[in-house]
Amino acid sequence: MALCAVAALSLTAACGGGGSDDKGGEGGASQADKSTVKLPKLKGEKLQVAAVWTGDEGKNFTKVIEAFEKRTGAEVEVTPTGDNVATFLGSKIEGGAPPDVAMLPQVGVLNQFAEKGWLKPLDDATKEQLGKNFSKGWQDLGANNGKQYGVYFKAASKSLIWYNAGAYEAAGVSEAKTWKEFVKNAQTISDSGVEPVSVGGADGWVLTDWFENIYLSQAGPEKYDKLAKHEIKWTDPSVKKALTTLAELFGKKELLAGGNKGALQTDFPKSVTQTFDSTDTPSAASVFEGDFVGINVANDTKAKIGKDAKVYPFPTVDGKAPVVTGGDAAVALKDNKGAHALLTFLASPEAAAVWAQEGGFVSPNKNLDAKAYPDDVQREIAKALVSAGDDFRFDMSDQAPAEFGGTKGKGEWKALQDFLKNPKDVAGTQSALEAAASKAYKD
Q1: Is 189 in the same domain as 208?
Q2: How many domains does the chain have?
Q3: Residues in contact with 255: Cβ distance below 8 Å, sequence separation at least 6, in sequence order
Q4: How many CB atoms lie within 10 A of CB 307?
Q5: Which domain holds residue 185?
Q6: How do the pLDDT tens digits run along the chain, 443 residues long?
Q7: Which is nearest to 215 in space by CA: 320, 139, 114, 333?
Q8: Does one domain contain both 257 and 165?
Q9: pTM of the model
Q10: 268 and 353 together in one domain
Q11: CB 3.0-4.6 Å disulfide test: which of 59, 148, 175, 429 passes with 312?
């Protein structure tokens, strides 16, 4: 069950059963070098792949692509899309020059593209890999109207609090199990002389993740699903309750690194690095976000994961601990041999193992050997995700039309940034959210 899996994130190897199948036992590198899936020879063929990843993530994805090139002989060019993936790809498609394969970080965009007829259904070889390696929940996320289009290559466990162990120890606080305890701890940390919570408010998607975890735990999965589909309005009392709860943190500037103004000027990478810029007196004591925080900690700070940088599950609000996930789905925009071969490879354990051993990555592939991950922290996060089975909820904003849930300066991103600026205006935030949602969902 998901609750057992989340409990494991105390990261002391609890609840280890039910995670990814530790079958091979030969470590990550050896699984990356295995050939469990047959791929065609593609020497002389050129493919273009569009993906949002840059920096360290881009480098690690390139290693996956290089493994595919080695296996098939194909030449693959990776093109960055920027944050507005739907806009970038839409212009390429309408201009008659789409990439062969795209990595879509939003299931809402996948559904939009499928309904426009822009995506090519998976071939039998890829569907075979999906059936072997992925739970029904992850397969369903890549389907539209009964047809399978997407392979969720990279997932994200987005219900985690990462914290500076030294700051917590100095303040005399421990990992919070409830929201009430989390806010109380933040005040105690503030009183100790360290700013408690680092918020990457310059990136609107970070704020949507804050809201979604509170809403899922407080309102429950049924209402979460309805709000995700806009079957209930953003003016609903459940949204008011969740925003009011979030304002218990956002409404006290002494609890935010840099205050509300500073949080609005802090992007996601900085929100991580300022939490781990010192083991004695860091700029912040904790940061909320997904497992991918690990890559920023490992590459951009001197903190050691599991020692200086620790992690625990997002605290419960009124209900169960939330299990919110995200993910990037590989889809084919061209119906050719190379595109389908790449999707088949990305659905295999060996493709996942290439990136897993580099860190900063979690795969929903249940046959990826847990030993592929470089440390116990990432290993336990991955086990928690896989052992949740179908008992999770996908990122709500990523299910929405991109105009509402995935565009800078618009929709949910903009409304929640305005809320961070003025957390007292719950009603105004609800009205702005509902107006933007109605327009995007074409109510």
Answers
A1: yes
A2: 2
A3: 183, 186, 187, 190, 195, 196, 197, 249
A4: 11
A5: 160-322+400-441
A6: 333 334 334 333 223 233 333 333 344 446 888 788 999 999 999 999 999 998 888 999 999 999 999 999 999 999 999 878 889 999 999 999 999 999 998 888 999 999 999 999 999 999 999 999 999 999 999 999 999 999 999 998 999 999 999 999 999 999 999 999 999 999 999 999 999 999 999 999 999 999 999 999 999 999 999 999 999 999 999 999 999 999 999 999 999 999 999 999 999 999 999 999 998 889 999 999 998 898 899 889 999 999 999 999 999 998 788 989 999 999 999 999 999 999 999 999 999 999 999 988 899 999 999 999 988 888 988 988 888 777 789 999 989 998 999 889 999 999 999 999 999 999 999 999 999 999 999 86
A7: 320
A8: yes
A9: 0.79
A10: no
A11: 175
35 in any annotated domain: no
Task: Based on the fold, state whether residues 107 and 232 are members of the same structural domain.
Answer: no
Which structure tokens are listed for 145? 């109207």
Of 323, 363, 329, 370, nearest to 158 by C-alpha is 323
Mark whether 77 and 124 lie in a shared domain: yes
Same domain, residue pair 97 and 184: no
**φ/ψ bin of 321: left (φ > 0), alpha (ψ from -120 to 50), beta (otherwise):** beta
**In terms of domains, do 248 and 373 share one?**
no
Give the relative orientation of helices 411-421 and 204-219 as an angle to the nearest 10 degrees. 90
